[in-house]
TrEMBL record:
Main location: cytoplasm
Keyword Hydrolase among UniProt keywords: no
Sequence ranges assigned to domain Flavodoxin-like in this UniProt record: 9-152
Reactions that this protein is recorded to catalyse: 2 cob(II)alamin + A + 2 H2O + 2 H(+) = 2 aquacob(III)alamin + AH2
Gene Ontology molecular functions: [methionine synthase] reductase (NADPH) activity; flavin adenine dinucleotide binding; FMN binding
Subcellular location: Cytoplasm
Keywords, alphabetical: Amino-acid biosynthesis, Cytoplasm, FAD, Flavoprotein, FMN, Methionine biosynthesis, NADP, Oxidoreductase, Phosphoprotein, S-adenosyl-L-methionine
Subunit structure: Forms a multiprotein complex with MMACHC, MMADHC and MTR.
A Gene Ontology term for the protein's cellular component: cytosol
An example Gene Ontology biological process: methionine biosynthetic process
Name this protein carries in UniProt: Methionine synthase reductase
Length: 699
């Protein structure tokens, strides 16, 4: 092990997109100021640590991905500890504290952390510090910051107990004296996602992880008449507070421009998830009318000459670039407009103070500058507080400097949430708002996360359309706001829409005749199989599908597959199928009128539709939303789920639909079972557990 000090602790992180790693690095960075030394490793590096023989306290930071799975980097670790032959005292010697990251917008909140926590407990490990569960829906920092603050006293107490057990009495007095300077605290904090109501109090400055920034040190330039806070302007009490700001992250990347030429890496080298496929777009269809609120497109890909395989219900990922004009703007701000096509070499800075510093995996060692900004870095990412702290050092104007300090400070937590996080502010917005901020290219590489491939549900069946893969998406729109001066389209949906725009010729009624065109444009994709969101293995089992808007996408694949099975196996028994679909207007965004064909040929047994924005002259107003139609069909829904042991599928927006559908199902079960709501919720939980109530949702 690299840290032999008796004040050592083991720090493990399991990350999917880099957040858990960034938080672990913050803990590692703060440890020195508390007289501790963190031996930090990715949890996948099992050759560098050994929990079976670990004597020091262990701190674990772990995220959650997919439908509640641990991140990819933790899969081997989880598989190892889930070995059923391990005895219940396997980790009886182990003391640990765990911080789980998740998003309550999704089912199985923080399940990656909960899974590891539960299993360690089953194997006899003991908490030296209570588990924290941080919610990205309301802001990870609401739990992360106080959890880290309380960690140090808990670690020191755990290390003191450890030394006492080892009989090292000569060291007890030294540890006790260090503890006497810290205020008494109850460190079993019961931190969870419910901490969203937590009010962070100003804390005393401790060690070198924070610094006090007095107001009189700064010459504020904001006009006194501004009484409302904004991205660039603060008001009391924040504007008059001494600030607790994070320690400056150590620089660790060096970028060298080279005169030589060459070729950029292949896009497949940027993906660690498996094999990628470059496939042509063979068809583009606009499914919505021009006056619809959202523009929905269907694209068809030719996968005939590839080894790409999928089932209806699976998802796949599209490798997409950043917007060209945004990359050009960033190059201009960096003063590198003339160097975009120059090759650069990215390496670790000599003498860096960052522990275990390595070049980020998503950054090629050698490529053009434009390639890095276009394909490697998520330039639309919401800047973390550590990034804001680093940007302070690149800002020359005193007022702008102070405001950036406020936004990354403990005192400015509310302003950060409102003006940056909730406003979806990105680096370009910050550089526009704070024009004296001139970051280096190396700083961007250090702090901007990997540009993630975007996931889409498959909307076809390989059995029905061999060699073809279809998917449907809305072109995402982000309107301009006070914090964001320009409107933008989604990174991937905007790019795809632009890619097929010259080839797309919607007719007057694109819903019926479907204007379409052929194309030779190619995109790079890779599979992301879904372990559960598939048709029932037994075709005689009935199922219900709920998919408003583009949530209908996977169910088109379900119905195509079922139609082909019915044609090929006339002697099979097939269960009934229900589809609940909703959209705003029947004549503008009824995405698939071919549903009537499935109904006529018997593939679809029941089709229930609703239109939320259409007016009606009927005495009794028709149902507006899919949950309303479900309630009207309560007896049938309960029969399918309870008596016939059918399946229930939901696809679409979680916040504004899936939760309401879940509530409707609880009400239906309660009414039809003649049971109270708690019993109905238990029944729904059992359906989830049995993988008969399945969701493919997004926020």
């Amino acid at each position: 092990m690299c840290c032999e000090s008796k004040r050592r602790f083991l720090l493990l992180y399991a990350t999917q997109k880099g957040q858990a790693k960034a938080i672990a690095e913050e803990i590692w960075q703060q440890a020195g100021a508390h007289g501790l030394e963190a031996d930090m490793h990715c949890i996948s590096e099992m050759d560098k640590y050994n929990l079976e023989t670990e004597k020091d306290p262990v701190v674990i930071v772990i995220s959650t991905t997919g439908t509640g799975e641990p991140p990819d980097t933790a899969r081997k670790f989880v598989k190892k500890i889930q070995d059923k032959t391990l005895p219940p005292d396997h980790f009886a010697h182990l003391q640990y504290g765990l911080l789980g990251l998740g998003d309550s917008e999704y089912m199985f909140f923080c399940n990656g952390g909960r899974t590891v926590d539960r299993r360690l407990q089953e194997l006899g490990a003991q908490h030296f510090y209570d588990t924290g569960l941080a919610d990205d829906c309301v802001g990870l920092e609401l739990v992360v910051d106080p959890w880290i603050d309380g960690l140090w006293l808990a670690l020191k107490e755990a290390l003191q107990l450890q030394k006492e057990k080892e009989g090292m009495n000569n060291a007890v007095s030294a540890v006790s004296s260090s503890l006497s300077t810290a205020p008494h605290a109850v460190h079993e904090l019961k931190l969870s996602s419910e901490v969203r109501n937590l009010k962070l109090e100003d804390e005393e400055v401790r060690g070198s992880d924070t610094l006090s920034q007095k107001l009189d040190d700064i010459n504020l330039v904001a006009p006194a008449r501004d009484t409302e806070p904004s991205l660039v302007h603060s008001v009391p009490p924040v504007s008059q507070s001494a600030l607790n700001i994070p320690a400056l992250p150590p620089e660790y990347i060096e970028v060298e421009f080279q005169d030589t030429q060459g070729e950029n890496p292949h896009l497949s080298s940027l993906i660690s998830e498996g094999r990628t496929f470059e496939v042509p777009v063979t068809k583009a269809v606009q499914l919505t009318r021009e006056d619809a609120v959202k523009t929905a497109l269907l694209l068809e890909l030719d996968i005939a000459d590839t080894a790409f395989e999928y089932q209806p219900g699976d998802a796949f990922c599209v490798i997409c670039p950043n917007n060209v004009s945004e990359v050009e703007k960033l190059l201009h701000i960096l003063g590198l407009s003339e160097k975009g096509d120059d090759f650069v070499c990215v390496k670790v800075k000599q003498g860096t103070k960052k522990k275990g510093a390595v070049r980020p995996q998503h950054i090629p060692e050698r490529s053009t500058l434009k390639f890095i900004l276009t394909w490697c870095l998520e330039i639309r990412a919401i800047p973390k507080k550590a990034f804001l702290r680093a940007l302070v050092e690149c800002t020359s104007d005193a007022g702008e400097k102070r405001r950036l300090q406020e936004l990354c400070s403990r005192q400015g937590a509310s302003d950060y949430t409102h003006f940056i996080r909730d406003s979806n502010v990105c680096l370009l917005d910050l550089l526009h708002a704070f024009p004296s901020c001139k970051p280096s290219l190396s700083l961007l590489i250090e702090h901007l996360p990997k540009l993630q491939a975007r996931s889409y549900s498959v909307s076809s069946s390989d059995l029905y359309q061999p060699g073809r893969l279809c998917f449907v998406f809305n072109v995402v729109e982000f309107p301009a706001s006070p914090s964001r001066p320009v409107s933008r389209k989604g990174v991937c949906t905007g790019w795809l829409a632009e890619l097929v725009a010259p080839l797309l010729h919607p007719s007057k009624n694109s819903l019926g005749t479907k204007g379409e065109s052929s194309s030779t444009e190619k995109i790079s994709i890779f599979p992301r199989p879904n372990n559960a969101f598939h048709l029932p293995a037994d075709p005689s089992v009935p199922f219900i599908m709920v998919g408003p808007g583009t949530g209908i996408a996977p169910f088109i694949g379900f119905l195509q597959h079922r139609q082909k099975l019915r044609e090929e196996h006339t002697d099979w028994e097939f269960g009934e199928t229900w589809l609940f679909f909703g959209c705003r207007h029947q004549d503008r965004d009824y995405l698939f009128k071919q549903l009537q064909c499935f109904l006529k040929n018997g593939t679809l047994t029941h089709l229930k539709v609703c239109f939320s924005r259409d007016s009606s002259a009927a005495e009794v107003a028709p149902p507006k939303y899919v949950q309303d139609i479900l309630r009207l069909c309560a007896k049938e829904v309960a029969r399918v789920l309870l008596k016939e042991r059918g399946y229930f599928y939901i696809c679409g927006d979680k916040k504004h639909m899936a939760d309401d559908v879940s509530d409707a199902v609880v009400d239906i079960l309660s009414m039809e079972m003649e049971a109270d709501k708690l019993e109905a919720m238990k029944s729904l939980a059992m359906l989830r557990e049995a993988k008969r109530y399945l969701q493919d949702v997004w926020s």
